[in-house]
Amino acid sequence: MNPYRKDFPILNQDPTIYLDNAATSQKPQSVLAAEQAFYEQTNANPLRGFYDRSIRATEVLEEARRSVQHFVGAAEPEEILFTKNATEGLNLVAYSYGLSHFHESDEILISIQEHHSNILPWQMVAQQTGAQLKYLECEADGRFLPEKIQAAFSERTRLVAMTHVSNIMGRVNPIDEIVRQARTCGAVVVLDAAQSVPHMPVSVRELDVDFMAFSGHKMLGPMGIGVLYGKRKLLDAMPPFLRGGEMMESVTREGAVFAPLPHKFEAGTIPVAGVVGLQAAIRYLEAVGWEELMRREEACTRIALEGLLKIPHVRVLGSEKAVEHGGIITFVVDGVHPHDVSAILNEDHIAVRAGHHCAQPLTRHLGLTATTRASFAFYNTEEEAEAFVKSVKTVRRRMGYAE
Amino acid sequence: MPNRSFYHEILTEHNLHPMHKHPLPEANVVLDGVNPSCGDEITLQLRLEEGKILEGAFVGEGCAISQASVDIMLDQIIGQDIEFARRRLRLFLRMIQGEADEAEIEELEEASALRDISHMPARVKCAVLGWHTLEEALDKV
C-alpha cells in the first residue's frame, strides 16, 4: 500500500488513475492548507506596509525564499526570483539578458529536446538581435553524444539553453558536459529544470549553471508560482523584465532607480499564498525523501516499461532501462493515433497525455507527429502501472485490429 | 463514471477500411484541411459537374475520428447535388454542437455515430475537419 495517497484529497475522490504527472502534479492537503492559512491568518501586501501584518507577510515571503534557496543549493536568497512558472523564468532571461547582451555575430545554442517555452523565447531573441540560433541534436534514444556536444559549440556561442530532463524522454541530460563546454567559450548556461526538480535532488551549486527555471505546480505546489535562479553577478547587471510596483527605489518623471535583488525582478504583488504553498510542497518532498520518492517512481516506471516492451505493435521512446526514464514513458501504438490511444485509456479511467507535448521539433526529429505519454509520481501505485499496461494491451483490438 | 466505448464498429470500420481514401486524379475541386495542434491532415478531392458531386475522395492521415468522419461524409454526399451536401453539412455541425433533435440526428444516418463528440470538446475539431473542408470547397465553387 502507498502511504502517501491519503495525503492527496483528489486521489481519494474517484477511481481515476492519474498518469499525467509531467504535465502537473497533484497537491497534498498540507499545500492546500498552507495557502488557505495564509489568507486566513496573515494576508496583507508584503513589502509595502509599516504595520505588523504587512511585516509578517513580508517575513513569510522571505522565509519561503530561503526554503527554496536551500532546496536548490543557491548561495544566497537574493538569487531566488519568484515567477509565475518556468515559462516566465525562461522568458525573463531571454528578454532581460538575451536582448541586452547579444549581437549579430553571436550564437545561441539550444537542444532539440526543448519544450516550446525554451525555444520560442530564443527564436525571439535571435530575430531581434540578429544572433544565430543553433540546435544540438540527440540520438533516437534521447542521448546526447559528447562529440556532438563539442561540435555544437563555437567561440561565438554566448548562451546555451537546455532542459535537464526532457518531458518526452525522461532521461537526465549531461549538463556537466554542457557546462564544461560553455565555460571554454564563455557562454552562460540556462537550465530548464521543470521536469527534474520534482523528481530528483538538484543543486545549482553542484551543476554550476548560471540560470535555472522551474514550476511549482509540477512539484506538488500550486499553479501560478515558479522560480528562477540566477547568479547574483549576472542578475545585478541585467535590466528589469517587468516594470512596476516595488521593483524600484525612487521614481521621478523621467526615470527610476531600480530596487536591489531580488525585488528588481518581482514587479507587482507576488502571490504570497502560492509561495507559501510552494514552501509546503518542498517540506512535503523533503519529508518523503528523494531515495524513497525515486524508488517508488522507478518501480512504477519499470512495470510500465517492461510491460509495454512486451506488447506487439507498441514502441517506447528513449532508453530500454527504467532508471533512465525519470518516470516518463512516451510511446506509440502502430496504426492508432495517440489521441485515440488516450481516449481509449480514458474509457478505462486512465489519464495520459497525447500529442506533441509542447516539443514539436523533438517529435519531428524522431520522425513522428504525435505520441502518447504516461508519467508517474511517487503517489502512483504498482497496481496503477499494471492497469495501464493492461489497458494499452487492448488498444489495437478495441480499434478494430485483429491483434 | 460511465464506461462505454466511443470507438464502436461504425467508427473503427471507416477508420481501418475507408471506402473513399484514395487519390482522385479527375478531381476539379481539391482542398487541404489541417488541424495543426493534432497533426490531422486531409486533402479532399471532388469532381463537380452542373451542381452535382459526381465523385469524391480523400487522402491524408490523422486520428480515427477525423478519418472515419470524412469517409462517412463522402459516403453520404457522392452522387448528390451540392444543395443536399450543404444541408447535410449544416445538420452535422448542428449535431456536433449538441443542437440537433432526435429526428434530425436520425436523418444523418451513419454520421450519427459521432453524436457523442458533442460531449468531448477536445475531439470536436477532429470530427468536423472533413466537413469544414467540404464547406470551404463548396464555397469556392
Give a summary of the structure in a few sentences.
Chain A has 403 residues and is of the alpha/beta class. Chain A contains 13 helices and 15 strands.
Question: What do you see in this structure?
Answer:
The complex is a heterodimer of chains A (403) and B (141). By secondary structure, chain A is α/β, with parallel strands linked by helices. Chain A has 2 domains: 30-285, 3-Layer(aba) Sandwich (Aspartate Aminotransferase, domain 2), CATH 3.40.640; 290-398, Alpha-Beta Complex (Aspartate Aminotransferase, domain 1), CATH 3.90.1150.10. Chain A contains 13 helices and 15 strands. A 7-stranded mixed sheet of chain A has the order 2-8-7-6-5-3-4, sandwiched between helices. In chain A, helix 2 (52-72) packs across helix 9 (272-288) and helix 10 (290-309) packs parallel to helix 13. The longest helix of chain A has 21 residues, at 52-72. The two termini of chain A are 34 Å apart. The model of chain A has no long low-confidence stretch (mean pLDDT 96). Chain B has a 3-stranded antiparallel sheet with strand order 1-2-3, covered by helices on one side. In chain B, helix 2 runs parallel beside helix 5 (121-140) and helix 3 (82-96) packs antiparallel against helix 5 (121-140). Chain B has 141 residues and is α+β, with helices and mostly antiparallel strands. Chain B has one domain (9-140): Sufe protein. Chain: A (Alpha-Beta Complex). The longest helix of chain B is centred in the last third of the chain and has 20 residues, at 121-140. The mean pLDDT of chain B is 91. The radius of gyration of chain B is 14 Å and the shape is globular. The A-B interface holds A 14-15, 335-340, 343-344, 347-349, 355-356, 369-370, 398-401 and B 1, 3-7, 9, 12-13, 15-16, 37-39, 61-65, 120, 122-123, 126.
